[in-house]
Amino acid sequence: ERTKVFYEIEYSSALWTAGGGSFIDELIALSGGENIAKDANGAYSEYSIEALIEKNPDIYMSNTFNEALKNSADVKKRPGYENIAAIKNNRIEILDGNLLSRPSQRVVEALELMAKAIHPEVFK
Asked: Residue 22 belongs to what H/E stretch?
């Protein structure tokens, strides 16, 4: 069974995510996760907070380029987020934006970073 993952690109006037067909979606799948936003309206698009809460991800991810997310406390204080499994279980991962924000020759490093975030027990 795959671990349910949500990847936040930005949280400002709207919540933005990486949907199906995106580089991030591919990394999540290759790392053994399931992108709960694969049904989003495009590779990179707005996503409703209601859908996020309903799909209840096990891991909440973002990257260091996300201005609205400097640490896990920034996510925990958002209204409604306290009902999400990832938040309850402190599975909030802020990963290196240099590796995840653009496909490059460092794709193997990006994949390893994502896999460690989804399945840390495998890398002990």
From this structure: none
Residues 11-66 have pLDDT tens digits of 888 899 999 999 999 999 999 999 999 999 999 999 999 999 999 999 999 998 88
Identity at 3, one-letter amino acid code: T
Separation between Cα atoms, residue 37 and residue 45, nearest integer Å:
10
Task: Give one DSSP letter per residue of 46-108, joined into a string.
Answer: E--HHHHHHH--SEEEEETT-TT-SSHHHHHTSTTGGGSHHHHTT-EEEE-HHHHSS--TTHH
120 Cβ contact list (under 8 Å, min separation 6): none
Cα distance between residue 81 and residue 89, in whole Å = 12
Alpha-carbon span 30 to 46, nearest angstrom: 23
This prediction's pTM: 0.93
Q: What is the pLDDT of residue 70?
A: 75
